[in-house]
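Translate sequence into structure tokens.
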Amino acid sequence: MSNEPLSLSKALASFDVLWSPRIVTRVNNYDVRIAKVEGEHVWHAHDDTDEFFLVLDGQLHISLREPEGERTVLLPQGAVFTVPRGTEHRPYAPSGAAILMFEPAGTPTVGDRHDETPDHVDSTTGHALNI
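Result follows.
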């Protein structure tokens, strides 16, 4: 991690792989990750942590399986949303998006419980940013 300011647009321009987040910095024991996304992720849940999303560009949809039933939230550019711990969810971006996530270091992108991971989803705890 650098102690210099970081341009998120420069960071996003440094990679092309979808659904493969890069760690841009750490805050205490939390990773701040950015990712380019398009299409569907996988249904998954993080049993012990919430997951924060900020849409930097495009639109992100997040389907949620809640006690009241299934619903989808739409996040336009600039919107934030937190998925509560233990909630099954599936992010997707039909037309592509760039997102920023905030979650404890070491949190897997496919959660603690998930459906089969498709080839286009990177099951990782985040990659180092190489710029």
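Note: Helices lie at 8-13.
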